[in-house]
Structures are given as structure tokens and as C-alpha cells.
Amino acid sequence: MILVIGIGSPLRGDDGVGQAAAYELANCLPHTDMEVLGVHQLTPELVEPISRADRVIFLDADVRQEAGQIVTRQIHPLDDPAGAFSHQISPAALLLGARQLYGTAPEGYLISIGAETFAFSEQLSARVQAAFPDYITAAMNLLTP
Amino acid sequence: MSRQITIDPVTRIEGHAKITIQLDDAGQVQDAHFHVTQYRGFEKFCEGRPFHEMPSLMARTCGICPVSHLIAGAKACDALLAVRVPATGVHLRKIMNLAQIAQSHALSFFYLSAPDLLLGMDAEPGQRNIFGIAAANPEMARDGVKLRQTGQKIIELLGGKRIHPNWPVPGGVSSPLTAEKRDQMLAMIPEAITITRRTISWFTSVLGNFQPEIDSFANFPTLFMGLVGKGNTLEHYDGPIRFVDRDRAIVADGLKHADYQEYIAEAVEPHSYLKSPFYRSMGYPDGIYRVGPLARLNLVEKCGTPLADEVLVAFREVDRGSSFHNHYARLIELLYAWEKIELLLNEPDILSDHVRAFASPNNEEGVGISEAPRGTLIHHYEIDRNGLMKRANLIIATGHNSLAMDRGVAQVAKRFIKGDQITDGMLNRVEAVIRTYDPCLSCSTHAAGHMAMRVQVLAPGGEVLSEVQRG
């Protein structure tokens, strides 16, 4: 099973792109062995569904990248989750949690897309909207284990 | 020359705060304060909105306990409509409220407080988190994950989503329960009960290790306040308000929700955005009272479910005045919540489609009170003839505990901090007393902003002698 986790708030402009992409994948590929979760933030209890997956794909906006720029990177269980808290947990820390608690951590990927605005809006900015099809394609490329 | 310590931000709580500790010339703690430094103004910006939007608007106050605000907000709207919610609607709201309490209690105990309880107050700070728990006791970490998931799943099954489900509405709930979802929920309860009982056994086995904390974590006489159910049992949804003293003697009973301003007044302290409610007839600050799990168990004779009542017997032997025992009470309420959810799901009318009453506004004022995980939650709305909000007043559980938290910080600081050499274990204990209340500061100040924790030791003249910064 492939687990897709879209991260962010759909009410804060480009921050909602992760959830939007996750649900778009679910609509495009209803018969794929895929589970889709849309979350506002990463929380510790996600380690359980992550532990059941063969691969986990995190989709998130990133303010450090140029708007619309797409970056795919493999992530590995974080060795030192110091500072992790219920409000602030990284994908790598969740992979570590899955391994610590359930003995297995799946292959993990983070596909980030550069964001332009996090202002109150249910719309993506023009540049992120323009890159959205490529963002979906980047995720689809990882849907085959 | 006196000195001051500032802890800014206070960690592993919901929201942001700081603590200042004033030392005297001899390096002894003279005074201490808990400051909530955020402000959001939810009560103000809802003015002019249609009243029926209030439950979902006010739910945005908090991402941890949106359900509690939905419930209290919907009840305030029920009062505006002057409707009687159908019995099934009440049962379903109660189930969601209890699931909210369960998931929040699991978060508080396993994610926020268990690092201190399992690893010790003096453990390496980098280890005092859920991953430290996972490394030291994977079963406990899995248990925490499972219990939180169970509460969240029940909320999701009822309301369609885990956070901000717009399902409790004025007059009831928006849709009935299906047999399939009821059975899914019932199937989860036995494991949740097993885990909770295991956790209570573990907690009681280590309780003796924390006698200094039990003695000093806000261990002083105050009143306790909350709802009381029929038969003198735990109640989280409705029922009259009761105040008891430290000895559990009743001070006031049978108080009506709509009259809350007759027995509760609110003071403001210059050092915090958190209001300080007090029991009006005893004045300020003598009318200090506490709400939440410990208060609720102190108010009643029994829980009202068999397994929770079994563990309540041993709980009655502990020092009921120590806020450290909020942890213990939280676990008992967790057990009660699973049992009560199961009972409610087995009500014969639980699948009825009569779940909502409809009406236009019939009153210009409405008060809704329920028990949130952290204590009694009050929503008070006033509307005009067009149903638009004229005024709102919210008193949040954490606000009720404001005075007790402030005094608790001073008590624990005096016990554990000596001079300007501050160890992390000392600071952690000062934070931990706040953590026993599981405060939700975003809720209680209706606040915005960000605050990490800083502890400063200040000399009598105000210069900083020592400082620790986190976040």
C-alpha cells in the first residue's frame, strides 16, 4: 500500500496545495492501492498508518523554494528527533517513530512545491496553480513501488 | 538585590506562555507568575455574524478541542432558539464530546506529561518527548497513539472529519448515526478500555516516586467547580453547576447555567491576557477555584460506570488538593469516557433520524455550558432581532484555572528553585505544574501569536542573573 499524506491548511492559500494534490491523486487513481490522508500538520499518531505502508509520499508547500518549483527528495528515519512535539514533527521523525513502535519504516519521499502566499484564501496562487499538473505528475511517478 | 527568572516559552502545553520567578536578596524565591502573552479577540470579531455560524466560528478557537467549542456554542444557540434537542441528538452530542475528551486526555497524558512521568523530571530535555517514550517504553507509546486515534476516529465517524466537524448544530446534530458507523465505534471500545486500564495500573505503580511533586504542585486549598450529573455522577454535557471546597463539602449547588454571572466574576491581571475568574461571593482573589479532571472527580460521589468507579476507590485515598493528581483523574475520566460512549451507543434510540429541532430565535440571550477536557466551558451569546451577534463572552476552562496556575507556579518555584543556579530539572518542574492543568492558552485568551519559553532569574534590582531560552 502507498500512503499519500497531503500537508497544510486549505484556508491559507498555497499552504493548501499538499492536501489539494493528495485528493486530486485519489480522484485520478481510485483503483490504485493507495491510502490518502489530508492533514493540517504532522502528528505522532500518523506513525501507525505509516508503519503499514510500503511507501509513504508527503506532499507539502515550501516557502524556501521558488514559487511553483517542485523538488522530490527521499527521506530517511531521523536519528535525533530532539525537540519533536505534538505541534511540530518532521516526516523523517515520523519514519523513525514507525520504526521504533512498529518495527518497520517504509520508503519515504517528500515532494515539495515552492509557495508564494499563505494569506487567507482557498485558492492557489497563479504560479502554484500553473505548476499543479506537474506536481501531480511528480507524485504519480512515485506511485509504482 | 532581588532577581527574576523567566521561563519563556513554557513547553509541552497547548499554546504559549512564560513564567517569571522573582528572587530576593538571599536568593530565595519571593514570588512567581504565569503569563499568557497572546491575544486573538474571538469575542470581538464574531460581532455582526449570524448566530447560527457561532458554533463553527468558535470552534476555530482551538485545533485540539474544537468539538468542545462546537458543543458549548451549539448549546448557547439552543438557548437562543429556545428549543429542546431530541434525545438522540443529545446522545450523539454526548458521544462526540466524550470522544473529544478521550483524545485530548490521551494527548495530554501520553504526549505531553508521560515524558516526565516515565523518564523522570530530571531526564535529558532532548529525550522528554513522545520519541523518548517510544525508545524507553514502545508499548506505552503505541498505547498513546492508539487511544488518541480511537477518540479521533469516533469524532470522524460522527462528524465526517477529525478537526472542526460541523456536525453539532443549533437544535441538535446535522445527520443521524448509521448502524455501520455505530458498529465500527463499538468494535474499538474494548481495546481502548484494556489499554486505559493498563495505563492506570502503571501510573499508580509509579505514583510513589513523585511525592515531592504531589506535595508542591499547586497543593493548596481552593474551591472546585463543574457540572454534576443525575445521581451525583460525572457529567460532561449538561447538569447543574456545583462548587465544593478542598474537603469536598458543597459550597453551592444546583446553579443554573443562565445565571453564571451571578456566581462567577472575572478579574484581569496586568501581567497576562488570561482572565482570572473567581467565585463571586468570596471575592477576588479568595474566590479562587479549579476546574478540570481533578475538580470533576472531587465534585461527585461516583463516576457512574462500573470500571471507572472501581478505580475511583483508590483515587479517593490520594491528596485531593494536589493538582499533580489531575494526571490520575485524567486517566479515570478516560476510562469513564470509553465506558460511557459504549453505553450511549447501545441506547435503543441511537439510530433514530430525529436528531434536530428547528426554530427561529426566540431569545435574545443564550448561555451554553459543557465540560471540555480541561474543565468547564462557557459560551454566552447576545443577538439582535435579526439574529446577528451583538456580543459574546467566552470563559474557557484554562481561564478558570488561571489563579490556581499562578499560585501553583509560585509554590513549586519556592520548593525547587534555590538561588541563581537553575538546573533544567528545576525549570521542568515549574513547567510541569502548569502541564498538570493541560492548559489550552490559545483557547483561553482567544489568542494569536507565538511564544516559546524563557526562564529568567532576576535580581532585586531587575538585572538578569540567569536565563534559559527554549523555542
Could you describe the 3D structure shown?
The complex is a heterodimer of chains A (145) and B (471). Chain A is α/β, with parallel strands linked by helices and 145 residues long. The model of chain A has no long low-confidence stretch (mean pLDDT 90). In chain A, strands 2-1-3-5-4 form a 5-stranded mixed sheet. Chain A has helices spanning 17-28, 47-51, 91-102, 126-140, and strands at residues 2-7, 34-39, 55-62, 70-75, 107-114. Helix content of chain A is 30%, strand content 23%. Chain A has 4 helices and 5 strands; from the N terminus they run βαβαββαβα. Chain A has one domain (2-140): HybD-like (Rossmann fold, 3-Layer(aba) Sandwich). Chain B has 471 residues and is an alpha+beta fold. Chain B has a domain at 3-37 and 421-469. In chain B, 42% of the residues lie in helices and 19% in strands. Chain B is built from 16 helices and 18 strands. In chain B, strands 1, 2, 3, 17 and 18 form a 5-stranded mixed sheet that branches. In chain B, helix 3 (66-81) packs antiparallel against helix 4, helix 4 (87-119) runs antiparallel to helix 6 (138-159) and helix 6 packs antiparallel against helix 7. Residues 444-453 of chain B have low confidence and may be disordered. The chains are: A alpha/beta (145), B alpha+beta (471).
Structure in a nutshell:
The complex is a heterodimer of chains A (145) and B (471). Helices cover 30% and strands 23% of the residues of chain A. Chain A has 145 residues and is of the alpha/beta class.
